Amino acid sequence: MIYKYFIKFKRKRGYFVDILMKETIVQQRILMLGISLGGECMKKNAKEAIAEAAISLFHSNGYSGTSIRDIANLAKVNTATIAYHFNNKPGLLEYCFMHFFEQYMSRIEEAYLSIDRGAKECLRRIVADLLHYQCENNRLASFVYREMSMDSQVVREIMSTYSLKEKYYFQKIFERGFEWHEFRPHSIPYLIIQLKSLLMMPFMNMQYIREVLYIFTNEPFFEQKYLKDIYLWIDKTLCLDEPLTKGAVNK
């Protein structure tokens, strides 16, 4: 109505009709852009829903006990949508592994930047960040660690990339701790075994911990209490009470 009165007042119909047409085209483009963005959002939401459903079912039923149709039903999508995003079930498994270890390693790499503050301080920050990440993603951590005990192509690929990278950072921290006389000399591989066991055990045995010990790894109380225990291992097992002579390093 505003445009009609405006056109009548100016008596330049051709000019204002042209403006109206251009405005209509712009509105159509905005509408199309909204539909496009909405479509991208729906695709993203569908992918996230599929990944969450897969993690939940892989954790509760195991990888071999879960079918693509089970995942599709839980995610409320069709199997073609899963094929579009992940190709197949092995593709979903690889995605879960990559997602977990990319986030896992990013926390190690970020915390390692504080190494100049001391090996002990750096290690404490790493274990705190890793424990927090695993507690927030306890079902994914439990499933991934369980699958890592199997011998498969994807597991070998993970070990040849992420696991070796993790070992590199832990080894550098221990070596710095020896060099700076913060840590007593130990065999580095055995230190890594002990540290990894502390970090992984609650999530590898989550069912036992929940059903027998009534401890829930996603609760803040567990994270705070268990982190204190890991710190105690660092302070009592790893750290020196008194400085040793320089060069007393056992690799």
In round numbers, the mean pLDDT is: 83
Q: Helix and strand succession?
A: HHHHHHHHHHH
Q: Please state the CA-atom Rg, rounded to the nearest Å.
A: 28 Å
Q: Count every helix, treating DSSP H or I runs of 4 or more residues as helices.
A: 11
Number of domains: 2
Task: Just give the CATH class of the largest domain.
Answer: Mainly Alpha
Outline the low-pLDDT stretches.
Answer: 1-13, 19-23, 30-41, 244-251
CATH fold naming of the largest domain: Tetracycline Repressor, domain 2
Q: Assign an overall shape.
A: elongated
Helix content: over 70%
Kindly estimate the percentage of residues that lie in beta strands according to DSSP: under 5%
What CATH architecture label of the largest domain applies? Answer: Orthogonal Bundle
Distance between the termini: 85 Å
Structural class estimated from helices and strands: mainly alpha
Strand tally is 0
Which key phrases capture this entry?
mainly alpha, Arc Repressor Mutant, subunit A, Tetracycline Repressor, domain 2, 2 domains, 11 helices, 0% strand, elongated, disordered C terminus
